[in-house]
């Protein structure tokens, strides 16, 4: 494998790439605020100015600016994994139920397809989140995809949270572009130039944080902040916006966290949007914690954020499908099962392919 190809793949997954993000000491950076002028703010914090945008053209987290370090990457990769032998012997895998046909129209559903990918039907509208379904040289699935993509029809929206390769896969999106040319793509600012060549027939809407998308259906989807970062290649750090989604119908609300480190933004989202009925919280890719915590919450911190948000049902994700970090594949779920009080006994055990709505 060519060195450049390897680094490009690594750049889209781990929280600090093999190249540092350099800034000249003489260059003074200022921060302004931006948004999509075509989209509304239906709910926003009282003092909201917009999505932070640095004068070098890159986006910035609300409370914890991202920085990358070559030293920390090497310290992690060369330092060894204390669970390495345990991982070699580990055979525990996610439970998967095959989907042999979609339920009748009108029945709400929340079906986990693995990692951060869901099939959601709410109020008669069908959504897909972060579809990464095909193995490639960077990612290998450890849980089977429960559905044949060719079964998918009448999907209204494809939600892409950010540009990292375990959330935004070129091959999967090209496939969906041929199967679902009428599905609209909802994503963050500056993502269109990346996505449109893969989805030439699909309309794309970009939103800043706390902006709601222009939808025809009686559904509200709002792009909300996370503590994370973006990079697809070697020289495009934070040039595309990252975030999560808050989805509301007449009688249900879903919070899709995407990737995030712990921070004040969880409380800000809840204060602004309300407490979610179903919180899909990332819990994996968290070890070593000294390295991962700025961009991926541990199951412990995910539980803390869930309690702060006042969520009703805790739905863990972002574990078990891809091996991206030092912990065992199902270690986050094992911790949650062993500590039910940490999520107020509201854990919905994630079975891939099963409707998780209760």
UniProtKB/TrEMBL annotation:
Gene3D superfamilies assigned: Ribonuclease Z/Hydroxyacylglutathione hydrolase-like (3.60.15.10)
Pfam families xref list: Lactamase_B_2
Domain Metallo-beta-lactamase: 127-319
InterPro entries listed in its UniProt record: Metallo-B-lactamas, RibonucZ/Hydroxyglut_hydro
Lineage: superkingdom: Bacteria
PANTHER family found in the cross-reference section: N-ACYL-PHOSPHATIDYLETHANOLAMINE-HYDROLYZING PHOSPHOLIPASE D
Protein name: MBL fold metallo-hydrolase
Organism of origin: Algoriphagus aquatilis
């Amino acid at each position: 494998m060519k060195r450049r190809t390897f680094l490009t793949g690594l750049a889209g997954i781990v929280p600090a790439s093999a190249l540092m993000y350099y800034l000249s000491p003489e260059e003074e950076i200022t921060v302004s605020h931006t948004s999509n002028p075509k989209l509304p703010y239906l709910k926003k914090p009282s003092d909201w100015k917009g999505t932070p945008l640095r004068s070098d053209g890159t986006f910035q987290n609300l409370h914890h600016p991202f920085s990358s370090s070559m030293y920390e990457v090497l310290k992690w990769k060369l330092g060894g994994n204390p669970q390495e032998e345990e991982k070699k012997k580990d055979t525990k895998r996610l439970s998967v139920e095959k989907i042999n046909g979609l339920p009748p129209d009108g029945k709400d559903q929340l079906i986990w397809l693995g990692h951060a990918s869901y099939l959601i039907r709410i109020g008669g509208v069908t959504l897909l989140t972060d579809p990464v379904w095909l193995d490639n040289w960077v990612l290998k699935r450890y849980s089977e995809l429960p559905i044949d993509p060719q079964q998918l029809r009448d999907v209204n929206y494809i939600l892409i949270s950010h540009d990292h390769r375990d959330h935004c896969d070129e091959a999967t999106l090209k496939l969906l572009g041929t199967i679902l040319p009428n599905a609209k793509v909802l994503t963050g600012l500056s993502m269109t130039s990346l996505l449109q060549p893969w989805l030439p027939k699909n309309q794309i809407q970009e939103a800043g944080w706390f902006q709601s998308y222009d939808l025809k259906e009686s559904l509200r989807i709002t792009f909300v902040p996370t503590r994370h970062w973006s990079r697809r290649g070697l020289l495009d750090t934070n040039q595309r916006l990252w975030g999560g989604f808050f989805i509301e119908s007449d009688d249900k609300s879903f919070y899709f966290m995407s990737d995030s480190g712990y921070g004040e933004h969880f409380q800000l989202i809840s204060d602004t949007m309300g407490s979610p009925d179903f919180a899909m919280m990332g819990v994996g890719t968290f070890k070593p914690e000294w390295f991962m915590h700025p961009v991926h919450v541990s199951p412990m911190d995910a539980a803390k954020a869930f309690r702060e948000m006042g969520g009703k049902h805790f739905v863990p994700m972002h574990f078990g499908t891809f091996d991206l970090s030092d912990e065992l594949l199902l270690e986050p779920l094992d911790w949650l099962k062993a500590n039910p009080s940490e999520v107020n006994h509201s854990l919905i055990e994630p079975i891939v392919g099963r409707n998780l709505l209760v």
